[in-house]
Design goal:
By secondary structure, the chain is α/β, with parallel strands linked by helices. The protein has one domain: Rossmann fold (3-Layer(aba) Sandwich), CATH 3.40.50.300. The protein has ten helices and eight strands. It has a six-stranded mixed sheet with strand order 2-5-1-6-7-8. Helix 8 packs antiparallel against helix 9. The longest helix is centred in the C-terminal third of the chain and has 15 residues. It is globular. The C terminus is likely disordered.
Length: 295
């Protein structure tokens, strides 16, 4: 069964039971989340199901609050890290939509082009929806218990080796901020993860995306700003500590090569050896390599 067929069957089952599905999509910057969401919307529409799409970016705090929340971060960014969002701005309308007889869903929206590229909230979206797809680079990530984080910070051979004191302090702050996202993650009944073969790829992908925007006349970030945004995601929540634990629990995982082609996909439980931490089993449900790009 394909990812699209799996999600469609799940949403049909939820609707038949009088419920509304909320699907989470986790993937790094530039991985093709927007393109995948668009394709799923089209597939669902052809099946007669209205799929709404939202991003964790839509829950960004208003500019002044966000600037206060991001003050002192070592990347000099005004958004991206945990703590720059108001998760309840998404959780509250999702809960209301699920509880209501009517299918009308109202969601906040964020426009990155406002305020000279710093972005700000814009007109909310409202419309009928049978299911919701929520995407973002930190979807589903949970805080590490303080003793485990302290252990990682002290491990000379771990993923945090060589980090500067300012980066270490910021990581602890971000880990604490993740707790506020838990109630929103609890609303997810499916989780899809896009996983790059190499975590150096998101930087390339993000710069490629900006180049495409520049050709269309829509770019506003210079290379230094782009680099800061990429670092803010990869270093605020290091993937080895925060994204990798999602894999065994994921409904579906797509492993992407440098061109964002799917080289393996399947349930998290069937992931290839080495992809899922502590799991040495083979991926007996793996699909054959695919040349279809997701982004």
């Amino acid at each position: 069964m394909s990812l699209e067929a799996l999600l469609l069957a799940h949403c049909r089952g939820q609707l038949a039971a009088g419920q509304r599905a909320v699907i989470g999509l986790n993937g790094p910057v530039g991985a093709g989340k927007t393109s995948l969401c668009r394709g799923l919307q089209q597939r669902f529409a052809a099946a007669g199901i209205r799929l709404a799409v939202a991003s964790i970016d839509d829950a960004y705090l208003p500019l002044a609050e966000r600037q206060r929340a991001m003050a002192g971060n070592p990347f000099g960014v005004g958004r991206v890290p945990p703590g720059s969002h108001d998760p309840e701005a998404l959780a509250a309308p999702i809960r209301a939509w699920r509880a209501a007889a009517e299918a009308t869903l109202s969601l906040p929206r964020f426009d990155k082009t406002l305020q000279g590229g710093q972005g700000d909230r814009t007109t909310p979206w409202s419309g009928p929806a049978d299911a919701l797809l929520l995407e973002g680079w930190l979807l589903g990530c949970r805080p590490l218990p303080p003793p485990l984080l302290a252990q990682q910070l002290q491990d000379p051979g771990g993923p945090l080796a060589g980090w500067r004191p300012a980066q270490r302090a910021w990581l602890q702050r971000c880990n604490g901020a993740l707790g506020a996202y838990g109630p929103l993650w609890d609303l997810l009944d499916q989780l899809v993860v896009l996983w790059p073969q190499d975590w150096l790829l998101p930087r390339r992908w993000r710069f490629q995306a900006e180049a495409r925007q520049r050709r269309r006349g829509g770019a506003w970030l210079n290379p230094a700003q782009l680099q800061a945004l990429v670092e803010a995601s990869l270093l605020s929540l290091p993937p080895e500590l925060y994204q990798r634990p999602l894999l065994p629990r994921a409904t579906w995982v797509r492993l992407l090569d440098g061109r964002r082609r799917v080289v393996w996909e399947g349930s998290g439980a069937a992931a290839p050896p080495g992809l899922v931490p502590g799991d040495e089993r083979g991926g007996d449900q793996a699909s054959s390599p695919s040349s279809s790009a997701t982004g």
